[in-house]
Every structure is written in structure tokens, then in C-alpha cells.
Amino acid sequence: MKLSFTKMHGAGNDFVVIDATRERFRPTPDLLRRLGDRRFGVGCDQILVIEAPSAPGIDFDYRIFNADGSEVGQCGNGTRALARYVYEQGLSDKPRLRVQTATATMELQRLDNGLVKVDMGAPRWQPAQIPLLLPQAERYRIDTADGALEFGAASMGNPHAVLCVADVDAVDVEGIGRSLQARRDVFPQSVNVGFLQVIDREHGRLRVYERGSGETLACGSGACAAAAVGRLWGLFGPHVTLSLRGGELNLEWAGADAPVLMTGPAETVFTGEIEWQR
Ligand SMILES: N[C@@H](CCC[C@H](N)C(=O)O)C(=O)O
């Protein structure tokens, strides 16, 4: 059988988008891994599945799979790609859309400049399993194979650890990323590991070693977590632009229970079909 897909990206974080409002899609582990495989399949960081809404007040259900086939609850860059797809394909012309993932409800807004702004919801502070270093700033410290690591931890519907570093280009992103991900006592569902270099109160640089797909060129939920941790630690003001290897994202967070707002690009790269033996 043939499966139609659209290849998209948001700041270089790339996606295979499946429109399950128009074709039947059964996300088996083999098929997901083939879609994610850059050599034997299509290749992407995440597979995004757009489905008809399963609840009132929601425009679309939105399922997210990492390239390794694991299903997750959040993908910020993918949310902007979803909005772009919906508008390009005429699935909706509403300027604001509400989408539901396994763990989060998000509101998306199409801006006049072609960018998409996403209300990502309020950060939730995690993890509870380890003692805080500084309780008032949600700062943690654990011992790993790479020595003692200090980090902030936030859930944006998926788990993130954020480490402040002097120079993102000089960090062993994969090594430290993997060693934190291996600490299942602290992160039972593993974790996306962000490395944040603060430039000034409104600018930073960020690299993210993602769960299920390794280092990506950008991570939207990781950028939200980094902006929130940076603000909580007194390093950032309420507006910050983060430069990732694939582009820039703008983040706003007023603090406490306010949602993190993320603005950035999303592009369609090509469409295709993949042969698939069920
Ligand atoms: N790239 C994404 C995050 C995708 C999911 C993540 N790898 C996880 O396992 O939680 C983003 O833009 O947010």
C-alpha cells in the first residue's frame, strides 16, 4: 500500500506529517521507524499525525512520535508545522486553532507575517524525586558519570532538563545528554536535555539533545523550558530570543502560571508517497 506524507520543518527540526483526517493511518512501530529512518525510509526527527478531533472545542487531535517510534505528548516546532499544514491544505481557515496531544492542549495563532504563535501552556516544575539545590529557583544537582550536574527541570507536556553553559559550541551535547537520560531514577520517562548559553537578558543560544531522536537543529518545547528556567533563575526578562542551530524562536513568559508563548517559522519541504507492506 502507499502512504502519502508531507515533509516539513520548523527551524530545522524536521517532520514527516501524516494527514489522518484524509487517509487511514495505523502507527505500527515498524512503519514509524521506517518513516523516521534517514537511510532506509523518509527521515525526520518526529512523525506528526493530524487527526479529526475527539473532544468538543478542539479543532484537531495531534499525535507525536519520535524517530525511534516512541509516542510523546509535546512537540512545539511540530505544532507550528501542523498549523501551516492545516492552512495550506485548507483543512481550516480559523485564525486560531486548538489542538490536543496526549498530554497538552495548545492554542495556535496565525500571524500576518506568516509565523505561527503557540500558547504552549504553563511550565510545570519537575522532578520531585531529587532534592532542590535552591528551592526558590527550582535548581537541582545530581551526580552522573560526567560529574555533578546542575540543572533546571520543567515539563511543557514533555520532560526537559536545562543546563546553563558558557559556550554551547564547546559542550559534549550527546555525552551529557545521554548520561542524564540514563538517570531513570530522576527522570522515569527519560528527558530532553537543553544546553543554554545566556548572552544577555533577551538573548540566548540553545542546543537540545532530544529523547528519541538525538540532537536536533531546534526544539520548540526545549526553547520554552529554557526561557522559563532562565527567567526563574533571574537570567532572562519576560521576552527572549533563542538562537538554535536551525533558526530563531521568540519566547514570552510572564512567570508563575502564565503560559509560555512561542513564535517561529514552519515550512513545507516536499510531499511524497512511501510504499508500505502491511
Ligand atoms: N522537537 C520537539 C520535541 C519532540 C519530542 C521530544 N523529543 C520528547 O521526546 O519529548 C519540539 O519542538 O518540542
Automatic annotation (TrEMBL):
Residues that coordinate or bind substrate: N13, Q46, N66, G76, N77, N158, N192, E210, R211, G220, S221
Site (Could be important to modulate the pK values of the two catalytic cysteine residues) location in chain: H160, E210
Signal keyword on record: no
EC class (word): isomerase
Keyword set, alphabetical order: Amino-acid biosynthesis, Cytoplasm, Isomerase, Lysine biosynthesis
Record: active site: C75, C75 (proton donor), C219 (proton acceptor)
GO cellular component, one term: cytosol
GO biological process terms, semicolon-separated: lysine biosynthetic process via diaminopimelate
Biochemical pathway: Amino-acid biosynthesis; L-lysine biosynthesis via DAP pathway; DL-2,6-diaminopimelate from LL-2,6-diaminopimelate: step 1/1
Recorded family membership: Belongs to the diaminopimelate epimerase family.
Subunit record text: Homodimer.
Record protein name field: Diaminopimelate epimerase
The species this protein was found in: Hydrocarboniphaga daqingensis
